[in-house]
Amino acid sequence: MKYTMGHLLSLVRAAMGLSQDGLADRLHISKSIISRYETGDRKLSKVRFEGICRELGLSKKLVELLIADSVSPKNTDIARELGLILLTRLSSSQVKS
């Protein structure tokens, strides 16, 4: 399954336990921009997605797994699931800190 950058943003945001408002506040942009990215009403480039992930403290390797450009189609979903598991653990450890 091929995800759009907006869908990946939605998955990352949810895995980190952030609302659209919370993510918008953290990125210093409006909630409507986040919403438009996620719904596909506004194009979210790979470069912008990577920048957002960097702002959220995600590693480059994890972002590469999420995007999975170089992963063969049969392994793409596995790479994304791994990424989401790691995001969930990251989110949990940040809450405990």
TrEMBL record:
PROSITE patterns: HTH_CROC1 (PS50943). It comes from the Bacteria. InterPro entries: Cro/C1-type_HTH, Lambda_DNA-bd_dom_sf. GO terms for molecular function: DNA binding. Residues 9-63 form the HTH cro/C1-type domain. Pfam families: HTH_31. This is HTH cro/C1-type domain-containing protein. It comes from Candidatus Collierbacteria bacterium RIFOXYD1_FULL_40_9.
